[in-house]
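Dear colleagues,

I hope this message finds you well. In preparation for our joint manuscript, I am sending the Ergothioneine biosynthesis protein EgtB (Aeromicrobium halocynthiae) sequence together with its predicted structure, so that both groups work from identical material. I would be grateful if you could confirm receipt.
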Amino acid sequence: METTEEILARFAEVRAHTERLAAPLSPEDQTVQSMPDVSPTKWHRAHVTWFFETFLLAEHEPGFAPFQDRYWFLFNSYYEGVGPRYTRSMRGAISRPGAHDVADYRADVDARVTDLVDRVDGGTLEKLRPTIELGFHHEQQHQELLLMDIKHVLSLNPLQPVYAGAPRLPGTPDRLGWVGFDGGLVEIGATGEGFHFDNELPRHQQWLQPYRLADRLVTNGEWLDFMTDGGYRRHDLWLSDGWGRVQAERWDSPFYWHEEDGVWFEHTLHGTHPVDPALPVTHVSHYEADAYATWAGHRLPTEAEWEHAAVTQSATEENVADLDAFHPRAAGPATGRLRQLLGDCWEWTSSAYLPYPGFHPAPGAVGEYNGKFMSSQMVLRGGSALTPAGHTRAGYRNFFPPGARWPMTGVRLASGD
Ligand SMILES: [Fe+2]
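The corresponding structure tokens are as follows:
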């Protein structure tokens, strides 16, 4: 069990990391909302602060008063139980408070949370601990969103600005291998060790037929083969909704690719570069992942297959976000085990995002965190090169609509009955 000092050290580190990620961005960068799904950087910085203010300080700070009355309205994301809020798709219209005002808001809440945690007795700290822990993981989720979102913002700028200037990552082509699993009656879900979100409970049994998973992610080179073979022009490869999107939005390549004089280029947070065939393909929708799997004669894994495999292999975190590199890397040498599991790209599964059997959201507004989104979305597993270090785990259930392309997604093939 963490001591008060350890909790406060972690609080300071999580909060400082958000500010490190925002540091390369000007106040103008931090204000842009390039599409409805994207939130401005300064909104992310303020919203995670609002989370601590609303769910920790408002509930437990003696004589609580909000930092600014209207911030409650501006920085509530989707919590109906907290009250009305500003229109999500209009967040980019808010020029005030500015990025510097948000820094003042953050500093005020940081000081008050620190003071509260420092002052309470042991029994009260135990009551606060789950909310503080949720606040850490919530802020880490937004650290990834901040990077996803600013990647999209910068992608629309014809000057091709660079977020971070790390060198390109060298890649080595590598043959795809397979790892087999017996399946049978397995258990998935949170074990009770360490943090988990409510959607990872209850732990429960699943029956798995014998199956195989590809030992690495699909590469850009393989994706180019799919494109060359008419992958985006063959309706027979696509789910109906996906084919509709291909036609309506003229998809012909992954989200951040464009072609110049016969050469494909990819926008990254490190600038725009020719597509490296050895790197994992990324920023593809579930529809594209499914079409690729069909083209390759395979399928996507279920979330239970993925989790069972990751737990069986005691997967460890690799290539998550650090302050030098924010892009997936080529798989290392084959080892006979699954590579690139926790990091690189979130991996689309064929599983709809549904409650586990017996799932109950937490009471109160914080119960809106996950449960109410269990409709029309697909589960992704693993983590990405935009995920903060220490935030991945085998049981983590990420989710996005099947047409989403701006998250750092990728494809792992599955095979078997
Ligand atoms: Fe949030």
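For the figure legend, we might mention the following. Residues 122-155 form the longest helix (34 residues). The mean pLDDT is 95.

With kind regards,
E.M.
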